[in-house]
Amino acid sequence: MAPNEAPLKTIRILCFGDSLTAGYCYSGTVHAPYNEKLQQMIEMAFPEYSIETEEDGRDGDLVTSKVGFVRRISDRFASDSPSSYNWTVILGGTNDLAHGVSAEALFEDLKRVWDVPLSHKSKVLALTIPEAGVAGARGRKINDTRRRVNELIKGYKKENLHVYDLCAAVPYHSMSEDDRVKYWDDGLHFTPDGYELVGQKVGMALVSLLVKDMFKGQTPAKRKRNFPDDDAMFEEEGGDPKSLTTGYIVVRWKDLE
């Protein structure tokens, strides 16, 4: 750091979950966690900040197990300072669905998981459970339960908790065959390209929330943001600051290449 140069402000993000957070693919021979792409997206949007992400995904873990998500995230936050993470991104439930857990039981335990970081002053971005390529009667039952859980997740309201619909953002069944081959590994987990896509989608959602936090209380005319090497000045669109469907984010093509 140069003399008299102010230290960068830090944004710390924990990505917590099961194998889909760990980046499991190719029968476990490769792990390509999405937090790496998520961090890149946020760094592009906020070059004046130091962005730190940590991945805590465990293959095969269940939200509803007595030794699963609740205990693991409780232990993690107990060992860190109360404000260690500004944001916690949580994705879980795929394994619980495979074990036949009911939508209501899964949702109740997800709320307990979310409450841990919230109680430690970490904002939460809860992700809906992605689709899976499970066929037959079992697949239909799992899909019905998934839809119900995701409806409960999207309808839940609590201070400092936000929801991103990952299931809709990265679908399985409605993708073209070429995209399915590119982004999905075994019908349950993603390929490395798929995890990169997840990181891009979740990263942009988190950027939107960070922008709204930073400009909270300001009028639209004051919501201006300069981008390095750009001559233009952009203004955020007016709208409900709590809604991901209003406002916009500018990303240059050269930054995405």
Describe this structure in words.
The chain is an alpha/beta fold and 257 residues long. It has a single domain, classed as SGNH hydrolase (Rossmann fold), CATH 3.40.50. The chain is 41% helix and 16% strand. It is built from ten helices and nine strands. The protein has helices at 19-22, 35-45, 69-79, 94-98, 103-119, 136-155, 166-169, 177-183, 192-214, 253-256; strands at 9-17, 24-25, 30-31, 49-57, 87-91, 123-127, 161-164, 224-226, 233-235. The strands form three sheets. Strands 4-1-5-6-7 form a five-stranded parallel beta sheet, sandwiched between helices. Strands 2-3 form a two-stranded antiparallel sheet. β6, α6 (136-155) and β7 form a beta-alpha-beta unit. The longest helix has 23 residues, at 192-214. The protein is globular and about 50 Å long. The model is unreliable at 226-257 (pLDDT under 50). This is SGNH hydrolase-type esterase domain-containing protein. Pfam families: Lipase_GDSL_2 (PF13472).
